Structures are given as C-alpha cells and as structure tokens.
Amino acid sequence: MNRYLNPHFLTVVCMGGVLAFTSCGQGTGKTAENTATATDSITAGEPVETKTANSDYKPAFPGQTRIGSVKTTTAYEYKVLDSSLKSPWGVTSLPDGRLIITEKKGTMRIATLEGKVSEPITGIPAVNSNGQGGLLGIRVDPDFAANRMVYWVFSEPLPEGNLTAVAKGKLSADEKTIEGAAVIYRATPAYNGTLHYGGRILFDKSGNIIISTGERSDLETRPQAQDIKSGLGKVIRITKEGKPAAGNPFEGKADARPELYSYGHRNVQGLALHPETGDLWETEFGPRGGDELNRVDPGKNYGWPTITYGIEYSGKKIGDSIQQKAGLEQPVYYWDPVVSPSGITFYSGAGIPEWKNNLFISGLSSTHIARLVIENNKVTGEERLLGGEGQRFRDITEGKDGALYTITDQGRLYRIAKK
Ligand SMILES: [Ca+2]
Description:
This protein has 419 residues and is mainly beta. It has one domain: TolB, C-terminal domain (Neuraminidase). Helix content is 3%, strand content 36%. The protein is built from 2 helices and 25 strands. The chain has helices spanning 32-40, 144-147; strands at residues 11-15, 18-19, 76-82, 88-93, 99-103, 107-111, 135-140, 149-158, 161-171, 178-191, 201-203, 209-212, 234-238, 260-263, 268-273, 280-284, 291-296, 333-335, 341-346, 359-363, 369-375, 378-385, 393-398, 404-408, 413-418. The strands form 6 sheets. The chain has a 6-stranded antiparallel β-sheet with strand order 2-1-3-25-24-23. Strands 7-8-9-10 form a 4-stranded antiparallel β-sheet, with no helix packed on it. A 4-stranded antiparallel β-sheet has the order 11-12-13-14, with no helix packed on it. The longest helix is centred in the N-terminal third of the chain and has 9 residues, at 32-40. The protein starts with 10 loop residues before the first strand and ends with a strand. Residues 1-9 and 17-40 have low confidence and may be disordered. The structure holds calcium ion. Residues 292, 302-304, 331 line the site of calcium ion.
C-alpha cells in the first residue's frame, strides 16, 4: 500500500511495533514484513540511533545521549487529515478544539479536527520569509474565549535587516481577518541574514509570554548568545503588552535586559511546559552532532557557543572544543547525529498510558517524531514514530481531545491517537 497515492482517509494502525496495515517503523513503501524486520533490528533497550557519531566527545553523565529504546505497546493510529497546507510552521488549539496554524509565508488558517482547512486569514503584517524566516510560532490568549486575541512570532523585515518579533491581534468574529495587529516585542538587534530565528511561543502559568530566539547563525552574531544585553540566542519572558515580565532573573540588574529568561542558546525551536511540574523545557538546533534538550531555569547560561557536543558543518571544531564547563548548564539530552528538533509537546492525556508526561519532538532532518520518556528530569527511553512517512515534522501539539496533532513542511496535518 502506498499512502502517497491518497493521503486522505487513510489510517495507519500500530500495535506494539507490529504492523496492522502498513509501516509503523522506518521506510516508506516497504512491505509490512520488511518494515517489521527493520524495526526489530533495533534490539529492545539498545539505542534507536545506530549511525556513527560526528565526534568522540564524551557525555557528562550516562544517558545524556543514545539512551535505550522503548516501544509503545498500546495500539495507536495516525492519519493525514489534510495535505494542502503551505509550509505550516506553528500549530495550537483554539478553546473549541479546532487548530490554528501558521504558514511560513505569512498566512494563518484554522483547521477542524476532521481536517477541514479555512482560507488564509488576512490582516497579518508582512514577514520576511527568506531562508528560515517567516510566520513562526503561534498561541492564543488564555482568555481567548472572551477577548479573541492571537499572539505570534515572526521574522520582521526592517530597514536595517530583520529580527524575531512578537505581534498580537484580534481574530475577527467571522474568522477571516486579524484586527488591529500590532508588534509588541522585538528581539533586537536586527541583522541582515536568513537563519536562526528561534520562533516558538507559549503562555506560562502566570499568564506571561515566553518566546525563543536564535543567534542568527553567522560567526559575527553567534557570540551574542552569551551577551545578556542582546536579544539573540535567548529565551525571553514578556507580558501580553511586550514588556519585561515581573520576577524575571535579570530584573533591576545593570547591563542586562530585563526581558531575558535564559541565555546561551543557539536556535530554540521547541518550547513546552511539563504538565505536572510546570517546568519549562526547550529543544534547540545545535551544530553538527549537537542538537539539545534542556530544562530551562531562569537566569542560567546554556552554554552556546562556549560548550557544545557538536562540530561545525565544515568539520572544524567549535571554539576551544569543550563540552562541559563550570557555570554552564549541561543539556538533559543531546543527539549526534542531529535530528533537527523543531516544535515539542508533552503528552498529558490518558489515552495511551505509557505516553503520559513523555515529550514528543517533531524532527525535520530526522523525518520522525521522537518520543522521549523523562523521569526525574533525565531521559530514560527513546522511540521513533512516523518514521516511514518521509515528512519533515515542524511542530506538534496536544489537542483538546487528547490526540497529538503534527504538521510537516510538505503541508500535511496528522492526527496521532489511541486506536
Ligand atoms: Ca547548550
């Protein structure tokens, strides 16, 4: 069965890695038997990653990379709800359960959980969609039912370059336009590049906004990840008006930006709050062999570019080629080779018991969803899901119905849920 022939109306059922209809493991187009063999070639408990690492760097503690594999045992299914999206980037739920989705070139659409997708919503300020820029992460106000406010991150074109910015506006009653769109925050300085904007957004439990930025990639801007007077390479916490949130770690300190929450980040494209602890977790793109998962504490330095488990894509070492240093936070987990971790979500639903409080990571270059089991702030198991789909997974969210919804660069919207 080739699900590319008609991605609609096709449901794939997975039971403990055994195939009911088609691939639940690796390899689009393989037969069920072939796929089962490929999946089973990973011995239970052995790491899912079998490729050679890019360096001989040693982890700081056991289990910081290449943790043993785990396998979902509850039967689950996934299906393509829609494949007409245009480079979707961010997805989140409206209070009624429908999804609101950004598209990179500057549009938003609303999708029902059955996959009916609206026309593009108008009224959104222009974005710079070159390279990795565009209309990025999205969240709606915790009081959306009353105020209809939408918040989003985008790469804003400015005369002096472009930067990661946050805007808000009101979704009109007919859902056709964003009214009164206004930029509330700019992660200055602007830079004339097309890479590393970060771009995720969420509301924390206090009702403030947390966003992520990137360090714009180039050697020229990279050191600003360590500069607490710069907005580049940071996690940032602001009010709904775009002002520094009360209680931020650098509040009242000289020579620091009061909106900063943490620093030393490279390109943070995943942000999520743990459903039970409320802790903030992030994933960020590292250099070659250095993608990271971090649990974010306010005021801490996450090390880039001083420490990293990766090397330059050219093969050169980065900085002094060190991976651990006092005062700099270690990632909870890292991937070598990289998976390109984009949007993330914790699964809080009860549908699949072994998934409760697991972290799901949408992988771009890896073309799978990574499922991480996390216990006591350490990763204890890893699984790869939807690896046979051949998709670049850009974002993932837990819907109001408890299912997972994920979007791909190729334009698909998937639903993943208990069978
Ligand atoms: Ca780091």
